[in-house]
Each structure stands twice: as C-alpha cells, then as structure tokens.
Amino acid sequence: MSELLNILGSKYPIIQGPIGKLNSPDMVAAVCEAGGFGMLALGFTTDLDEIKKMIADIRQLTDKPFGANLMIAMNPANEQILEILTEAGVKTVTTSAGSPKKIYPKIHELGMKGLHVALDFSFAVKAVDGGADGLVVSGCESGGLRTMNPESSNMVLIPLVCDHVEVPVVAAGGIADSRGYRASLALGAQGVQIGTRFLSSTESPATQAWKEAILNCPDGGTTLLPLGGMGVRAIINPRLAELMNDSSIDLSKEYSMMNMGEAWHSGNFDLFPAGGGQVSASITEIKSVKNIIDEMVRQR
Ligand SMILES: Cc1cc2nc3c(=O)[nH]c(=O)nc-3n(C[C@H](O)[C@H](O)[C@H](O)COP(=O)(O)O)c2cc1C
C-alpha cells in the first residue's frame, strides 16, 4: 500500500477537491462509497454546529474515512474545527491558503495527518519544511484560487516536486478520466485530487447552470480572473469575453470576490463567472461519482 493510501485510508488515491463553501454530505459519502476520499470544504465555514451536522449526516451514509479542507489564512475557527473533526474520527485534512507552520503543530498534536496544497515548487518545499505530511500539488490548469504570477502546468510541476520531496504527492488540476489519473501516477504522484470533474457530477450540489457552464466550456474557455493579487480560474461567458476584449478595462474592478459565492450558488454568472478548471473543455456529460471513479481506476 502506498504511503498516501495509508494516510487517507481510502481504497483509491482519489481525493474530492474542495470547492469554496459547496458542501453536500451525500456527495462526500458517494465519493467514499465509490472508493475515493470524500472531503468537506471548510475553508470559509465558521458555524461549528453546521459542521457537526454535516459530519453526522455523512456518518449516516458511510462508515468509510473522509476528510476536510481548511484554508489556513481565511478561517479563524480552524483550531476548533480540527477538534470537532478529531472527535468525529477524521484522521486526515488538507490545508491551503496560508503557512503550514501555523496549523501543523495542532494537526499533529491531535494525532492527525495533513496534506498541504502547493501551487508552485518553492511553496511545496516550504510546506514540507513547515510540517506537512504530504502535498497536493496544483498546476496552473487547475480550477480555484490561483496567483497571477507565472505558473507551471502539472506536466512540469509534479515531477519537479517529486524529485525534491520525500513526502507523498497528490496531483491536482486537469484530471477528469483514467488518462489523467494514470498520467499523474506516471509523473510521480501517488494520487489525484479532482475538482471540476466531480463538480459536474450527478451528486454535486452545484446548480444545473454551473454544471452546464462546465459542459459547454470549449478548449481555452477559461481564464485567470485577476482579483487584487490573486486570480480565480473562471469560465469565460459573453459578459467576461466582452470585457476581456476592451483593453481599457481593469477586470479586477469589474468583479468582486465578495460576489463569488452568491453568483456560483445562484447561477448569475454576470455577477461573477462560473468557476472551473481548464479540463472543463473535455467534460461533456454529467456522470455519477461512481462512474467517474470506476472509469478512472479501470485497468486497461
Ligand atoms: C470552483 C472551484 C472552487 C475551488 N475552491 C477551492 C477551495 O475552496 N479550497 C481549495 O483548497 N481548493 C479549491 N479549489 C481547487 C480544487 O479543490 C481542486 O484542487 C482543483 O479544482 C483541481 O483542478 P481541476 O478542477 O482541474 O480538477 C476549487 C476549484 C474550483 C474549480
């Protein structure tokens, strides 16, 4: 068994990528029951009762291990959340957006393991120095929050990081099927984290409008939307395309991260474009989580 599977405790090294505040106990359980590692996205959730309720709901549906993502710099309740997770028997978390040094002492004190999300080589090495037990290495093709700095794709980044760290590496970004899964393992990763493909699954709580934005996204149909120092990978829609064509327009003034949640949850993508990775272009149908995972791990 790989070191990663030891840490996760799942059948397959396939992690459900956290998506903002989009949570569904049904979806977490579906990923676990299909052999993957289901995850709650707790990066922005401070309501501890809501978290306890979601954990209880998951436990009604599966006895398999699941985890949670914490955003280090974004959530003042992280320490309490870790305690709640430990009490519920959760053994593994992923951490993102902040310095691992702030949170890994607590993770280890509670007897848990953590995988830190790194978007580039230098942060990957720093995260291991900061105590991370493993890495989720996320190349520029990924969906979600990015930097506006030049970034590498996973084809470059995964082997580079694997050559320099001793901890297990999970590849995140651009993976939607067995080809991406096997390619990630060939590059040296021990597993994968799947965002956009699961976001557009049957069990995903995303709105139909969001799923359709992914299904209709052509090659090159996403862009990094600048948001004051950071970027979010977003699916280009008619309004965004029009704004991008006008070089006098500063996109970071047209869209606010404050509107992201409302837009994504209501389907009003003029307010803020739908989130999705570059791999949206190769997703053409909504499938169940089980079908996605079964196809990914099928021996050829
Ligand atoms: C719309 C969207 C929102 C995301 N939100 C988060 C988040 O809150 N925290 C996080 O660690 N990663 C977040 N991610 C990254 C995913 O968990 C995952 O690593 C990434 O989507 C992998 O790339 P893929 O979409 O090509 O599979 C988000 C991704 C997307 C598409």
Describe this structure in words.
The protein is an alpha/beta fold. It folds into 2 domains: 3-205 and 284-297, TIM Barrel (Alpha-Beta Barrel), CATH 3.20.20; 208-280, no CATH class. Helices cover 37% and strands 17% of the residues. It is built from 14 helices and 11 strands. It has an 8-stranded parallel beta sheet. It has a 3-stranded antiparallel beta sheet with strand order 7-11-10. A hairpin with a 2-residue loop joins strand 10 (222-227) and strand 11 (230-235). Helix 2 (25-33) runs parallel beside helix 3 and helix 3 (48-61) runs parallel beside helix 4. It is globular. The protein starts with a helix and ends with a helix. The mean pLDDT is 96. The chain binds flavin mononucleotide. Flavin mononucleotide binds at residues 17-20, 41, 43, 69, 96, 117, 138, 141-144, 172-175, 193-197, 199, 275-277, 279.
Gist of the model:
The protein has 300 residues and is of the alpha/beta class.
Within CATH, the superfamily of the largest domain carries the name Aldolase class I
Strand composition percent: 15-25%
Oligomerization: single chain
CATH class of the largest domain: Alpha Beta
Mean pLDDT: 96
Strand tally: 11
H/E series: HEHEHEHEHEHEEHEHEHHEEHHHH
The low-confidence parts are none
Structural class estimated from helices and strands: alpha/beta
Bound molecules: flavin mononucleotide
Named CATH architecture of the largest domain: Alpha-Beta Barrel
What is the molecular shape? Answer: globular
Strand order of the largest sheet: 1-9-8-6-5-4-3-2
How many discrete structural domains?
Answer: 2
Largest β sheet strand count, sense and barrel closure: 8 strands, parallel
Tally of individual helices: 14
